[in-house]
Design goal:
By secondary structure, the chain is an alpha/beta fold. The chain folds into three domains: 240 residues, Ribonuclease Z/Hydroxyacylglutathione hydrolase-like (Metallo-beta-lactamase, Chain A, 4-Layer Sandwich), CATH 3.60.15.10; 100 residues, Oxidized Rhodanese, domain 1, CATH 3.40.250.10; 106 residues, Oxidized Rhodanese, domain 1 (3-Layer(aba) Sandwich), CATH 3.40.250. The chain contains 15 helices and 23 strands. It has a six-stranded mixed sheet, with helices on one face. A six-stranded mixed sheet has the order 7-8-9-10-11-12. The chain has a six-stranded parallel sheet with strand order 18-22-21-19-20-23. Strand 2 and strand 3 form a beta hairpin. Helix 3 crosses helix 5 and helix 9 crosses helix 10.
């Protein structure tokens, strides 16, 4: 038996390849499928089967391209309404390949069509070796139940209770759990960082599995959910149809500094993908900063949207290529071009530059003591409720696309998140909206807490 897990940290996404007797299966492939083709080639394998545990909402799957390039069949839950050629999966479906057997469990809850795949290695006995749980069961968490246009969150939570307790928890304790996402994904709330677990470990430690009654489970599953990005529904729709191959995307067009200045004045989004410190020092006025170093594509999808059609600003050609690929992974396929020559060309054209002031947490505390500044916290609600700076205003970055915080233009606001990544994104949006007096807090709330500065714990707070 051959087995490999692939983990794409920028999307907190796990996919899998396993094989027996040279015949291989890929589970939940990412958009760029070359990694599976390379692994198969290097190990003398032929990819014949592609399983989707559900229609993913947070990324665009590569199932269609992978099938076209290998001739493999695609398997997806019968309730998916898939528009591409596929094998519909129901409870009890089995695929035998060499010494391996894949058995399907229909596990609605995260989505109506969700399935889990039980893998048995006959060389090791008749008991299951592993289960690929998609977004039904995570490490330390379960999937959110609010991503379906046809079912309410309580209806899905009710289904999930049965999927977890009647199906997954019926598996032997030693069965290895391999989910489709890890810590940081918006498909859950409290995932742990491990790449795998076991049914027995999750039975004892997973917070959602400790909820004993159906009524309590439904209430907990539908309360305090993180904001659902608008692009989630769009990605699910793309995956229902099957995305085109990446090679079919058009080439990017170089844009001169003068052209970009004119385009920005007409409302075009300029997306600067450099590190936040580089952006803070100097950037194209009214550009948006989403650095490549973090969960770039997820935030681009959430705060810009799939139809944003940005012009990229980067430090190198490699950054431009990486940004293009990572945007395509979440469905941002139309990119208007890139600033030819980057910031250096902009400066050489003698065009104006902007910057974002930054301050340390000690400097912030000193200014707060003199009432010289206000604080805007852009973390998520759970982070805010767990502790925040007293008298801060709260407005999660997740909601910036829907509405920006209402800030007084005559006041100065220090913007912070957990570590400084989200806060610079927020500062760039606020600057573009005309808020000149915004300052980024270096190190964010983590630095504030590490410095032993006072933390307020009450849940309620003023929303900006």
């Amino acid at each position: 038996m051959y087995f490999q897990q692939f983990y794409l940290s920028c999307l907190a996404h796990a996919s899998y390849l396993f094989a027996s007797n040279g015949e291989a299966v890929v589970v939940d492939p990412q958009r760029d499928v070359e990694i599976y083709l390379d692994a198969a080639r290097q190990n003398g394998l032929t990819i014949r089967h592609i399983f989707e545990t559900h229609l993913h909402a947070d990324f665009v799957s590569g199932h269609k391209e992978l099938a076209q390039r290998t001739g493999a069949k695609i398997y997806v839950g019968a309730r998916a309404g898939a528009k591409f050629d596929h094998v519909a999966l129901y409870d009890g479906f089995e695929l035998q390949m060499g010494k391996l057997c894949v058995s399907v469990l229909e596990t609605p809850g995260h989505t109506p069509e969700s399935v889990c795949l039980v893998l048995t290695n006959c060389e090791q006995g008749d008991e299951p070796w592993a289960v690929f749980t998609g977004d039904t069961l995570f490490i330390g968490d379960v999937g959110r139940p609010d991503l379906s246009p046809t079912h309410t969150p309580p209806e899905l939570a009710d289904m999930m209770f049965d999927s977890l307790h009647r199906k997954l928890m019926a598996l032997p304790d030693k069965t290895v759990v391999y989910p489709a996402h890890g810590a940081g994904s918006l498909c859950g709330r409290n995932m742990r960082a491990e790449s795998s677990s076991t049914i027995g470990t999750e039975r004892l430690t997973n917070w959602a599995l400790q909820i004993k009654t159906r009524e309590d489970f439904i209430r907990e599953m539908t309360s305090n959910l993180p904001a659902r990005p608008e692009y989630f529904a769009q990605d699910a729709a793309i995956n229902r149809e099957g995305a085109p191959a990446l090679k079919d995307l058009p080439a990017l067009t170089p844009v001169s500094p003068q052209e970009l200045q004119s385009q920005i004045a007409q409302g075009v989004t300029a997306l600067d993908v450099r590190h936040q410190d580089e952006f803070a020092a100097e950037h194209v006025p009214n550009s948006i900063n989403i650095p490549l170093g973090g969960q770039f594509a997820s935030w681009a999808g959430a705060v810009l949207g799939l139809s944003s059609n940005p012009v990229l600003i980067a430090a190198t050609d490699e950054q431009i290529a990486e940004a293009r690929l990572r945007l395509a992974r979440v469905g941002i396929e139309e990119v208007a071009g890139y600033l030819d020559g980057g910031i250096a060309a902009w400066k050489a054209a003698n065009l104006p530059l902007a910057h974002v002031p930054q301050l340390s947490v000690d400097e912030l505390k000193a200014q707060l003591d003199h009432d010289a500044i206000r604080v805007l916290d852009v973390r998520r609600e759970g982070e805010w409720n767990a502790g925040h700076i007293e008298d801060a205003r709260w407005h999660a970055l997740d909601s910036f696309k829907r509405e920006l915080p209402e800030l007084e233009h005559n006041l100065t606001f220090a913007v912070h998140c957990k570590g400084g990544y989200r806060s610079m994104i927020a500062c760039s949006f606020l600057q573009r909206a005309g808020h000149a007096n915004v300052i980024n807090v270096v190190g964010g709330f983590d630095a504030w807490a590490k410095a032993g500065l006072p933390i307020a714990l009450q849940a309620a707070g003023a929303k900006a």
